[in-house]
Amino acid sequence: MADSSQKASLGCGTLILIALIVMIFSRGGEDKKSSQKLEVLRNEMQTLSASVSAMSAGTAELKGELQELRKSVAALRDAIGVQQGQISDLKALMPKPGTEFQPLERNPDIEAPDPDLESAPEPKAAPTRGRSEPGAPPHPELREETLPLEED
């Protein structure tokens, strides 16, 4: 018969097994926190990815606009160059200072101006409001009128 006063002894392996079980069950709360943090980070990465995509599209549009502006600048520079050439050509055609000009003769193929138009009276100046010069009387065709105010 066995003696009931024997002490039970636990081996080293049993103690390690108990410690592992305790560690597994005690870390359950940390796993939830880690998975929540991981989910938040995933959401932030998706948001950042969408922002980067939008910025990339905007950058592509700006590059296109910049290319168009560069083409416009090049066209304007070409036009300025052409105008500068035309100005130089005109300057070369201008007479030198002090050059006397001979009067032109009338071309018989061109009709003479209507003599009635040459003798036509000068057009009358349109009346103006107020005075043309300080101290001058107002134009005789204009006069100030005071209108009565209508009351309701």
From TrEMBL:
The chain crosses the membrane at residues 6-25. It comes from the Bacteria. Residues 91-152 are annotated as: Disordered. Keywords: Membrane, Transmembrane, Transmembrane helix. This is YbgF trimerisation domain-containing protein. It comes from Luteolibacter rhizosphaerae.
